[in-house]
Amino acid sequence: MSQGVLDVITLPFRQGLLAVDEGFLIRGDFSPSLEATFGRSLVAEQTYQPAFERLRQAGIRTTAQLEGRHSLGLCVLTQHKLETFANIARAYSHLSNGGVLVCAGQNSLGAATYEKAVAKLAPLLGSLSKAKCRIFWLARAEEDLDAWSPWLSYATPRPIANTPFVAVPGTFSWDRVDAGSEFLVAHLPPGIAGVVGDLGAGWGFLSWSLLTRYPAIRQLDLFEAEKLALDMARANLAPLGDTRQIRYHWSDVRDGVGRGSYDWIVTNPPFHREGIQDVELGATFLNVAAAALRSGGKLVFVANRHLPYERTLKASFKTVSVLAENGTFKVLLATK
Ligand SMILES: C[S@@+](CC[C@H](N)C(=O)[O-])C[C@H]1O[C@@H](n2cnc3c(N)ncnc32)[C@H](O)[C@@H]1O
């Protein structure tokens, strides 16, 4: 999310159009102007661990699941359409009667479209444009949420067609199995066993595939920054949990996942952040995997063919081989 939107959302308050009150912030992050405007009056709901941690370290009250009703709500629009509709509706549902909801998002994310859609459900009280962002606000006028229920339903996990899995709109590949992960699973090597890590586990497709195919996996650790996805992994893996030890870590993989403790690490590493390609993020995952594997431990992962990960691997692994390749993906196996 751009810092710009976190500055712009404070504008109606700094201009005296709205009064600061006790309230909440949905999908925000730490910003000095937010802190200067609202002090400690907001509780921040955030399920993306790095942002949650930045807010927490700044002394802002944080939660992964907003509760209660409040006089003021701030909602930052995300790049996921259904998630954003759900967040706006949830924010509205957490307002006390007469409470004010302020939404802000970048124009490039379609902020004006959300503004028009919201205006059809409740009269807007005001709007502003600044720094390529749009802010609009409204007050909760009615007790019943009937008009908002279609949007509220996007916050509910839904089945992924032709699979036994569920996922929540907005999380990675929430409506289908990712093609890269599918390619990886089709070319996993034999012998995956012992203590295994899945870095960036999403809603659990790789982990489920590992547990169902490799009975010699004694312990599987899932690491995922987005709690909404990790909660779905928990639900998707629940039927397998009695037989093997499965551990769920809501964490930023860039902070490390241990030293020398894993026999195998399997991953489909992210290489985008907020829609922008970030190859460094994927490379960091591989370096973190290298540190977390025991000597002789193995890393197997999938990447888009064009991504230059071989250089990163050479620094920390003894051998690297290509297990499979097609027009789009490659599956690499590296031994520490
Ligand atoms: C390419 S997806 C793979 C998801 C899942 N393994 C699958 O196969 O469907 C990468 C995952 O990494 C997560 N992620 C991104 N940055 C992360 C970080 N810094 N720490 C932990 N997980 C992260 C994303 O939320 C996403 O679920």
From TrEMBL:
All residue ranges annotated as the Methyltransferase small domain in the record: 164-332
Alphabetical list of Pfam families matching this protein: MTS (PF05175)
One Gene Ontology term of the molecular function aspect: nucleic acid binding
Protein origin, superkingdom: Bacteria
PANTHER family: RIBOSOMAL RNA SMALL SUBUNIT METHYLTRANSFERASE C (PTHR47816)
Keywords attached to this entry: Cytoplasm, Methyltransferase, rRNA processing, S-adenosyl-L-methionine, Transferase
InterPro entries per UniProt: DNA_methylase_N6_adenine_CS, RsmC/RlmG, SAM-dependent_MTases_sf, Small_mtfrase_dom
Protein's UniProt name: Methyltransferase small domain-containing protein
